[in-house]
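Thread: fe (ii) ion complex, take 2
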Amino acid sequence: MHNRTHLNQAGVNELLYQALETEQGGVKVYTTALQCAVNKDLTKEWKEYLQQTENHVRILQKVFERLDLDPEAQTPGRAIVRHIGGALVEAMELALRNGDRDKAQVVAAECVVLAETKDHQNWELIGELILNKVEGAEELRQAHEEVEDEEDEHLYHTAGWTRELWLHSLGLPALLPPPEEEKDVKTAIAAARAKQGRKKMLRAAGTHQRAKTSGRSKTAGNGRSRTRRQRTSKKRLSTRPSASKGTRTKQSGSRAPRTRRSQNKRLGV
Ligand SMILES: [Fe+2]
Ligand SMILES: [Fe+2]
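Output below.
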């Protein structure tokens, strides 16, 4: 099936219904994820993604209007998307009830990645419809142009956050915010490069951490002023195995409940 003649119009409509449901569910996923967020950079990012997702709902509703599709119409596939979205919200609520906000934050990051994987794929498939000049391609093109870059960011940046938050929870060196964010990653290949480059970034960040603990916090250890990149790296290093005072270690043991500010400080923000 490589031409328009064999296009499955019911399948096209199904994709659009699922795309709308994914965005509507995404609003609920981000709203709940924000209740789990501790890191202030991540909170800021998810607030922005929530607003963008609300806008994606509006953009798709306009597409439905132009294509004369009923945005309330239900399909079995749409019901499954709604069910999965609801399950992600429930998972985060369960994590919140368990009372550990750091763990709930990691759960939320994973839930956002799961939701955004579907969202990202929907828009990729819509891109294929446009490339294949299906009926309604022009109505979809403008929507796709508005949304595409944001979807790349939602998925790749949050995947980076999830990896680094997990590493942090394991007591391993972590970069917060993740390199995907600093490098403004918008493609799968750029995400792979950012991931590959993280060891180098950790080494640079470690140099500054050592310089700081040895009382040479204003230089990179060689007497020269720090570059902007070096300053960023210092800020980003959240956890080292031989953590200094104020940084979480693997043997955190029992502690008094932390305030939001102290949690953020511990996460290196
Ligand atoms: Fe979206
Ligand atoms: Fe998204």
